Every structure is written in C-alpha cells, then in structure tokens.
Amino acid sequence: MAVSLSALLLAACASGTGGTPVRSATEDQRRDPSLITAEEIGATTVQTLYDVVRALRPAWLLQRRPTALLRQNEVSLVVYVDGSRFGDAESLRQITPNVVRSVRYYSPSEAQARFGPGHLQGAIEVSTMSH
Questions:
Q1: Full pLDDT tens readout for the chain, 131 residues
Q2: Domains of the chain and CATH, by start
Q3: 89 vs 93: CA distance, rounded Å
Q4: Spatial CB neighbours of 82, under 8 Å, sequence gap ≥ 6
Q5: What is the pTM assigned to this prediction?
Q6: What's the count of helices (H) and strands (E) in the chain, helices before strands?
Q7: With the C-alpha atoms ordered 87, 84, 105, 102, is the resulting torsion angle positive or negative?
Q8: What is the DSSP annotation of 31-76?
C-alpha cells in the first residue's frame, strides 16, 4: 500500500510544473531587463521619459569613459523614436511618458546590428502610442 501511495505521489509531482511558477506574457516582459512596457511606465509618477528610465533601468544611462581615441561626443547613447534617430540620452527629457508604448535598450553590438555603426554606448528605441 505504501509503495502504491508513493508511486501515485511521485506521478502527481512529475505531471506538475516542476515547482516553476507559470507566468503570463506580461510578467515575462516586465522581467526583461532590456524592455520597459507601458504598464511599467504607467506605474511611475515622473514627468519625463528620462526619469522613467533613470528610475526603472538606471544602468541604461551609465556611460563608459571615452578613450584617448574617442572623444566624449563620439561616445554617446543614441535614442530612436518610432524608428527615427532622435538624439542622445538627454533627449529623453523631451518625451512625456504617457505617449510611450515601450522603451527598449540595445547593447552596443545589438545597436550596431540594428541601426548601423556609431553606437558605442548602445541605443534606446522608443515606440509611441501613435505607431
């Protein structure tokens, strides 16, 4: 009897999720370190998109120091809004959070593959509600 009960318990455990909680797609997106969703933005009370990024993903705004080969103005994060080059990280101060659908950070290698050369600090792509 004890063997049958043990086998039944073992089978029930094996058919479960293995202790891994099931998360919705929204929860998975929230955990993406390279993405800020409209839901996350809506939960903040800041005035500019720069402040949203600084509050939720501050590492995106950290810049490496320029080297002797690269001047400071050649090494800046590039911001794109709806696919068009918009400016540097400071340009995020011009965007109000309530018009933003999502914000995505690209590492330097990802940014160069997506947008071309000249992204030594990476890039931030903003998608607005109008697109």
A1: 444 434 434 444 444 444 444 445 555 445 799 999 999 999 999 999 999 999 999 999 987 655 555 554 456 899 999 999 999 999 999 999 999 999 999 999 999 999 999 898 999 999 999 87
A2: 29-128 (2.170.130.10)
A3: 8
A4: 126, 127, 128, 130, 131
A5: 0.71
A6: 5, 5
A7: positive
A8: T-TTEEEHHHHHT---SSHHHHHHHH-GGGG--PPP-SSS-GGGS-
Would you call 79 helix, strand, or coil by DSSP? Answer: strand
How many CA atoms lie within 13 Å of 17's alpha carbon, on the beta-carbon side? Answer: 5
State the sign of the Cα–Cα–Cα–Cα dihedral 126, 95, 48, 120: positive
Compute the residue count for the chain: 131
Q: Encoding tokens for residue 18?
A: 């293995």
Whole-number Å distance between alpha carbons of 93 and 85: 15
Distance of CA 20 to the CA centre of its chain: 23
State the burial class of residue 100 (Cβ atoms within 10 Å of its Cβ: 0-12, 13-18, 19+).
Answer: buried
